[in-house]
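Q: Give me a backbone?
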Amino acid sequence: RFDGVYTYFGHSAIIGADGRTLGECGTEDNGIQYAQLSISGIRDARANDQSQNQLFKLTHRGYTGVYANGDGNKGVAECPFEWYRLWVTEPKKAQEMAEK
């Protein structure tokens, strides 16, 4: 389907914290999918499934190395990617850089 800007192929999906597909749309127009989520399950995954927790990985970069060396268990919180930092602080400038 084409809306004048984007082309959509369907098959939007809801993925659980463990990677299982909880629901998936087909290719029909205006398809709606829903799933029942467990708040306690989500909290448990965030606390215990660090290897699959992308938000944890982004905000604790290198945590496995520093933990193994005995240097703590937090890793590096600062964003090491200059362009992403610019995107957050100066989005117009980041947009201009991406257009070059």
About this structure: DSSP finds five helices and two strands in the chain. The chain has a mean pLDDT of 80.
